[in-house]
Amino acid sequence: MTLERSDFSNKTVLVTGAGQGIGAAIAKIFASRGANVAINDVNKTVADETVKEIASFGGTSKFFRADVTDESQINAMVKSIIDAFGSLDILVNNAGILGTSKTDELTVENWDRTLSINLKGAFICCKAALAEMKKKKYGKIINISSLAGESGGIVVAADYSASKAGLLALTKKLALEVAEFNINVNAIAPGTTKTPMIDAISDEENSKLVSRIPLKRLGEPEDIAYATCFLASQEASYITGTTLDVNGGLLMR
Ligand code: NAP
What we know:
Layout: E1 12-15, H1 21-32, E2 36-41, H2 44-56, E3 60-65, H3 71-85, E4 90-93, H4 108-136, E5 139-144, H5 147-151, H6 158-178, E6 183-190, H7 203-212, H8 221-232, E7 243-246
Parallel strand pairs: 1-2, 1-4, 2-3, 4-5, 5-6, 6-7
The protein binds NADP nicotinamide-adenine-dinucleotide phosphate.
């Protein structure tokens, strides 16, 4: 094994939902380490901002608008990414939505929408990326799950927790299937992290939560982004099928 520090020059990374929050932080850190970054989102306004920030420090990125629930849009996007950058080496399934309804008030429509974006969307993106990764016998897939997928969650709705638990099972199943192609598949389970997504949670709930977190703070998007870069790096090449907890010590397994 050669001992060399990873950077991501000559690697192409697709980050879904990269217009804001955790996805934007992941995109910026990969770009700062030399990767070509494909910024996917449904929201052009925020995605353009991420592309602009990356350009401001000399990084390379491009916006690809596509809805992760739409297989034809995702297949076309992956083709466009390979046309633009020459390959697709790393996929970060980050796009997601959050609800906070109690189960007896949760509608079937909302259940389906959450499962569709948070779980089916990741499956569609994995499927679209695998042909290129298998051909090259190289690939890294990182699924952004959640502490709620492991513990059930506190204020989040059941559709969210179920979608994130499903993502952990998808991670393990896919890791087993594609290991022979030198493709690593891992998940990250963030605790509550300061992004627009948690606007749905009251300050009071968040303060109560912080008092229970051993490291006494909420996560920053960069905390999740550094963990993602680690799982995509050469340093993590013997890690697959695992879930990395990034939660300030709130859940220890
Ligand atoms: P965020 O701030 O809401 O950002 C998510 C981005 O994904 C938004 O730009 C959103 O666009 C986009 N998106 C939504 N549906 C999409 C679709 N169908 N196709 C493509 N893009 C789509 O969320 P975040 O907090 O950064 O969360 C990122 C990931 O981390 C999510 O999977 C989330 O579940 C997970 N996570 C977050 C936390 C947390 O506390 N923040 C904790 C654990 C796990 P719109 O805004 O237009 O919908």
